[in-house]
């Protein structure tokens, strides 16, 4: 297995969704690699809990933000840039899932999912890109999902938000390639985090349940280790998880059979 050979010591990594799950484990992974870290999400207490768990706390700076405040994100990027003087890697891990059928989901809840997962990620990335380009380059990683490659029951707005990220960032990649900006789309399958507990139902209330898929999924630490490796190897798109990741090829080569399978599949 290829070792992580990038020297992260003088690198600044900005991670959203850092208060929980995959983002939290990414903080620990990059902290172990001696990177300087900016950690973001809404809940400052949880961000400080994560900082306190780090080995090199001096290298960790808390910057709280709400991805729904799209107009504020350009200023948050300016703040992030000022903290260590540069940002080399932005990992957009913050996100919210859905547990409700399309016809039972209020349009404002669908818009909220799009605002957090898509517009928030876009605005934050566009905020930091001019600084990265001026610094000679960098990487923007986006934690998408297998739901960015196909859709299933009770995930319509979530799958839409993740598909939109692929369209946007695949296009952006072609525009910023010659500025030494690398774009990495990471698609996890089932990962054991609080994502299903925090997922929104049709009226905006949290689902509040640990679903079977997540319960039996890959650990968040295992997922974070795979993400660090994929970013180090400058992968444009990767699928991380268990056998569910095979679904991407199933859909590509047997779309009708895949569609029939999904209609019958138990989805949690
Ligand atoms: N776990 C899975 O099975 C799985 C599978 C595929 C993809 N993913 C993706 O992986 C990413 C991380 O999810 P996770 O599994 O780690 O779930 P998680 O444990 O629920 O973490 C979600 C993170 O997003 C942050 N967040 C939510 N709303 C926000 C907002 N409005 N503004 C800023 N931050 C916000 C949360 O922090 P605060 O509450 O402090 O704001 C939290 O840190 C998400 O993009 C998710 O779609 C997860």
Structural commentary:
The protein is an alpha/beta fold and 268 residues long. The chain has one domain: NAD(P)-binding Rossmann-like Domain (Rossmann fold), CATH 3.40.50.720. It is built from ten helices and nine strands. The model has no long low-confidence stretch (mean pLDDT 96). Bound molecules: NADP nicotinamide-adenine-dinucleotide phosphate. Residues 16-17, 19-23, 41-43, 46, 65-68, 93-97, 116, 143, 145, 188, 190-191, 193-195, 198, 214, 217 line the site of NADP nicotinamide-adenine-dinucleotide phosphate (NAP). Residues 16-17, 19-23, 41-43, 46, 65-68, 93-97, 116, 143, 145, 188, 190-191, 193-195, 198, 214, 217 line the site of NADP nicotinamide-adenine-dinucleotide phosphate.
Key descriptive features of the protein:
Rossmann fold, 7-stranded parallel β-sheet, binds NADP nicotinamide-adenine-dinucleotide phosphate, two-stranded parallel ribbon, 45% helix, alpha/beta
Layout of helices and strands, plus pairs?
Blueprint: E1 12-16, H1 21-32, E2 36-40, H2 44-52, E3 60-62, H3 73-84, E4 89-92, H4 107-134, E5 138-143, H5 156-176, E6 181-188, E7 191-192, H6 195-198, H7 212-215, E8 218-219, H8 220-232, E9 237-240, H9 247-253, H10 255-264
Parallel strand pairs: 1-2, 1-4, 2-3, 4-5, 5-6, 6-9, 7-8
Helix pairs in contact: 1-8, 3-4, 4-5, 9-10
